[in-house]
């Protein structure tokens, strides 16, 4: 196989039409000024009233079908309801509009054939344009008509406008671009979203000593250690050198705990009876919300914790051993450091956990994710190669996911995001993935999205106030290294 030319792997300057016009160097100020404008026809279907009964019973199971050429989006239907409320938004990409009339039909869901109740028609030339920061267009009532343009019973509340991806209706809308996707789970995976990472603390556990342990076998010296569990993190102390019922350790264990604290810290004092046999001498569970938080170098007081009694089952008779064993520990959540959840060379955040220790921000990083080209086919669908690509960008505590562009090797996202920057010596990571959750919902949950490649940008290489319009080569790390 022939290798692609070397210049394919270099950073290239591009000249996109940003914010609807070219912008080089100095910044144009408006929402979505770092991406190319994409025009959409939006239809917000709010509710209907006084719909006529259609069945023999005189009841109605209404839904709305929004049709534009070959594309049609439908709302959910309601059982026996003449005043339904849908509150759904539909977005038709202007590039794919192949009709001059928009039809909004109200229909009655039926077993055999859905009945037509009435419709509202719009000429595309008459639809108003919305320019943010204007407020959203208010919906209004339209009287339903039959196929011949005569007024019939019932009214529909709608708002119809031409807008861009800067519209707040954009993330929640049904897109004509992804009309083939079915299943609620699959639809949820193709929307753009912003996520916040949980707040991470270091949990420090200083195990000092235990008192009045009651080993099962009194004839030998106990070999005691402490096992600590937090979620799926398990740490152990060494076996105490003092082989008595009052062992000492003075050992430090460190865990990473994520807010909200749901799981307690579970400690068990165990005696190594034989090489592969350990006996639990006592146990205690400590909820994290009651543990002290430390932001500076002050010393946290140590505390004694009771070790719970355990139960021995002899045949069917339960024998409870009552004892007052205790363990002495110093526990605290450390907020003065940053918990590193990324590689230190490519970290996007170096701030401590405690917010009161943060320095003020030095600026805002704006990122426009425009498009990709030359993406490789990632899977086969209906006997042909395809890719459903989306991007994830992570910086600091915020990470974002663009919408999925269905079946394209040259996807165009044109989505814009911002982050506060506290340190210039950080890196933003942008990864491109193939969405594997779209097979009509049958594989959802089990499918894992494949990695297509990633881009890393060091903020220290960027000048303030300058717009960079580069195409970056995608790095792909193969299992071979």
UniProtKB/TrEMBL annotation:
Keyword annotations from UniProtKB, A to Z: Membrane, Repeat, Transmembrane, Transmembrane helix
Domain C2, chain residue ranges per copy: 22-142, 181-305, 346-472
InterPro entries from the UniProt entry: C2_dom, C2_domain_sf, C2B_MCTP_PRT_plant, C2C_MCTP_PRT_plant, C2D_MCTP_PRT_plant, QUIRKY-like
Superkingdom field: Eukaryota
Main location: membrane
Gene3D superfamilies: C2 domain
A Pfam entry, by short name: C2
Subcellular localization(s) per the UniProt record: Membrane
Cellular component GO terms, alphabetical: membrane
Similarity comment text for this entry: Belongs to the MCTP family.
PANTHER family per record: C2 DOMAIN-CONTAINING PROTEIN (PTHR31425:SF38), PHOSPHORIBOSYLANTHRANILATE TRANSFERASE ISOFORM 1 (PTHR31425)
Protein name in the entry: C2 domain-containing protein
